[in-house]
Known about the structure:
- The protein has 311 residues and is α/β, with parallel strands linked by helices.
- It folds into two domains: 20-128, no CATH class; 133-310, no CATH class.
- 26% of the residues lie in helices and 23% in strands.
- It has helices at 20-31, 37-44, 194-198, 203-228, 247-262, 282-290, 305-310, and strands at residues 34-35, 53-55, 58-63, 66-71, 77-79, 81-86, 89-94, 104-107, 112-115, 125-128, 138-139, 142-143, 148-151, 155-159, 236-240, 271-276, 295-298.
Amino acid sequence: xxxxxxxxxxxxxSVPDLPPLARAKLILLTYGINVDVASLYNLYGxxxxxxxxxxxxxxxxxxxxxxxxxxDKSSHSIPSEIKISRGRKGSIVKVVFDPxxxxxxxxxxxxxxxxxxxxxxxxxxxxxxxxxxxxxxRVSGYPLGDFVSLIGKDRISVLLYWGCQNWSSRNQCxxxxxxxxxRSRNSVVPxxxxxxxxxxxNAHRWWASVKNEYYDCLKRGLERVITMVRLAPHTHLxxxxxxxxxxxxxxRIAIELGKVVNEVIPLSxxxxxxxxxxxxxxxxxxxxxxxxxxxxxxxxxxxxxxxxRKV
Length: 311
């Protein structure tokens, strides 16, 4: 059975001239997937240990005057990525969890698969993605997976810092709907909330106090990853810069971190890209190119689909 339109999809939805696998991936990303947790646990083990996973539901709670994210008691471990394939062609798909989705990821005693809204099995081979154990290791006592992650089979993702400027207002981010992490979390990744909480709004003092330890862990973590993980068929590297009110400073520290990454993985020799808020200073884009970034993705945080279409 092929992926097809559901009651929740607009009638004029169409993906012309796309191969079946690409169309399937686009639809699953657009409309999300519900997950039959019990069947997956029976096949892969409780909590999906050893596979790429995430929690199905997080809820906000108040901690010292700040709204933070916490795992809901009814939440379960679900896959964060799956591999879909037809014949010799395959692709990794992020699991966009939606308990109301028309598509259901489930399993029998031998394999997992996806059902459509009529409970017909979709003509795709489906596998959970194994988790590389190295990302559970620690660098100077900090979880490696906090600041270097593997997306799919060959894309390394590096965080510039944790959080976004919206969290500094002590509110939920209006763009991504995420909250700040609880303070109990131990991470070497610089936390943007500290700018207001610990440095009276001075981003320069904040970065100067945290960058050296972070750069050291980052270099050692990247060295470990490229030594122990087979990146194939290509090597992609993304530096995620998030959202900061001082755009010029954000660009400066992103380029500085890019130089650190360059010491381990030459940016010019892989499919590297910087994901960052747009700047009016074209010189900063040129500097990103000079240190080796092959692509710059301008992160346009626009609230509302109609406004996004105008942009």
